[in-house]
Amino acid sequence: VGVQDFVLLDSHTSETAFLSNLRKRYQENLIYTYIGTLLVSVNPYKELDIYTVTQMQLYRGVNFFELPPHLYAIADNAYRVMCSEYNNHFILISGESGAGKTEASKKILQYYAVTCPTTEQLQIVRDRLLLSNPVLEAFGNAKTLRNDNSSRFGKYMDIQFDFKGAPVGGHILSYLIEKSRVVHQNHGERNFHIFYQLLEGGDKDLLCWLGLERNPQKYAYLIQGRCAKVFSINDKNDWKIVRKAFSIIDFTEKDIEHLFGIVASVLHLGNIQFEEDSNGHAIIRDGTQIKWISKLLGAHLSILQEALTHRKIEARSEEVLSPLNVDLAFYARDAVAKAIYGRTFTWLVNKINGSLANKDSTRKTVIGLLDIYGFEVLDTNSFEQFCINYCNEKLQQLLIEMTLKAEQEEYELEGIEWEPIPYFNNKIICDLVEQKHKGIISILDEECLRPGEATDLSFLEKLEEKVGDHAHFVTYAFTLCILPQRKLFPSLIHNRISGREQFWLCNKENQAAHPLSNVVMSCAGRVRPGVLGRWWRRPETVATQFKNSLTSLIEILMSKEPSYVRCIKPNENKEPGRFDDHLIRHQVKYLGLMEHLRVRRAGFAYRRKYELFLQRYKSLCPATWPHWHGPAAEGVERLIKHIGYKPEEYKLGRTKIFIRFPKTLFATED
């Protein structure tokens, strides 16, 4: 149906032809299509019988182009090249929220678990790698308007392999858990899965010990989205999977007790109410919730109350307690809840990493899986959407640098002539956000750190002053007057008017919540005893911390060989079989798929070093089989002449052979 590699499209420059081919295949449940070695995946929103063990074995060890496009082909190709060339790889899975990135990541993990060599000891590692997923999903995923199991954090997982190609360990890096979800959910959305799983699936004795009731309507942090129960989610069953995973991942009963004590404490925190005393200061009259927190975390009531109703300020080199008013006390409560959950999630990832760690010092190769949040453009965009979309711009820049730009540079280095393809380099967008002293993040940090009262409006004025004339920047105020139909920079003013968290407050979150969360977290044994005594050193702002971790991630990826999976969401309603042309056309554009296709078609679909090409195909020519004793380039030239390659089908570079059409390669494989 259609063509299974877009490179073979006759009208390869036509977006309409591209969409038509994608639609034809999707309507026949063919959700995968290649652009050379890049895989385009369209979410079917239904179960397909293409992920069986039989299918896994079918793709195992088979040349990339021999079988129809499949996620398993991408996984197997990365694995085989890693084993034969002993280098490190990563598979970048990208796309919009709800496009199927998390599922794709899980399918690849399952493929390696089934097809790689194993022993009884390695089986334990394999099970831990697989079962780390439901635990991280429970604590890091949530129902959103677009996706019932949306990852609200970024995840990069390295799978480590020994010299035999067996998985022997792993390591996970997490990025920007969406802490604001702990205290606020939009209509039609839920908090993180774990809260509902605990209430629905936890046994009676556990809930009694935690001071919780089964009904999620009893908890302020769980009811704002007005959809605690979701038809497509089985919280009770998911709870069983998570509990089983904990035992296999090597969590002790004490670890689990601490963990659910903290989860319950967050729910109790959300139910704390403040009243105003005669001096206008916040007080807690009903101590029920705070007593539960005290019991679960082993904290003194007076310390907890002080942490929630006072702040410490420096006066004449001394620390003085200053009481909070009711509004600030509610903000402090929410800041503590978010900080506790965020730091607990970090502890959870570190604990999983401890169970996946391979202590053998022998050299290992890795395949990294990057499953990170997709672009999000909502009616009201918060600080999280700003960070998420900045992350996606960086990943798009990575694709440009490692694929489009690298293609052109490689041909020049190899002495192969071809006409360069113009493309939009989004470095200018990334610089607008991240440039030192001049970018949006630096301007935001300045506003957070300067003396005096900072607001989103003062931040907006600074942006106008410093980057207002940038070709790719339009402020919300300008949009209201001139371009009301365009969805542009996050709606700062709207956020402020509607009572949502402000950008500058979200960015200062680490600084505001750090001392408060230390008080609570230290009681749960999560902070070293000395921390409280010396108070706290100002941590980085959230945006700067995220920018630095993103820079580190890009460095990790740049050191590895890439494979790409581009996920596409066919419609907004998660409806099987429905292909929304307008929505998909938009995704094809911002995923850079047409640019990628133009480069692949204008250049060459396949290239390989002479030595590797000769090793693979030398048996097809009497002159090169079983051994070729001259230079590899001459051996390849002799080989392809014997096979009958036509001059327009290939070029010989300085170190590689370049084959223009996949069909030439298909014929060679046959």
Automatic annotation (TrEMBL):
Q: Where is this region: Actin-binding?
A: 550-572
Q: Which residues form the Myosin motor domain?
A: 2-670
SMART domains found in the cross-reference section: MYSc (SM00242)
Q: Which GO terms describe its cellular component?
A: cytoplasm; microvillus; myosin complex; plasma membrane
Which InterPro entries does the record match to this protein?
Kinesin_motor_dom_sf, Myosin_head_motor_dom-like, MYSc_Myo1, P-loop_NTPase
One GO MF term: microfilament motor activity
Q: Which UniProt keywords apply?
A: Actin-binding, ATP-binding, Motor protein, Myosin, Nucleotide-binding
Against CDD domains, the record matches this protein to: MYSc_Myo1
Q: Which GO terms describe its biological process?
A: actin filament organization; actin filament-based movement; endocytosis
Q: Where does ATP bind?
A: G95, E96, S97, G98, A99, G100, K101, T102
Q: Does the keyword Transcription apply?
A: no
| Chain ranges passing through the membrane | none
A single Pfam family it belongs to is Myosin_head
Does the record carry Nucleotide-binding as a key word?
Answer: yes
Family statement drawn from the similarity comment of this UniProt entry: Belongs to the TRAFAC class myosin-kinesin ATPase superfamily. Myosin family.
Q: What is this protein called?
A: Unconventional myosin-Ih
Q: Which organism is it from?
A: Opisthocomus hoazin (Hoatzin)
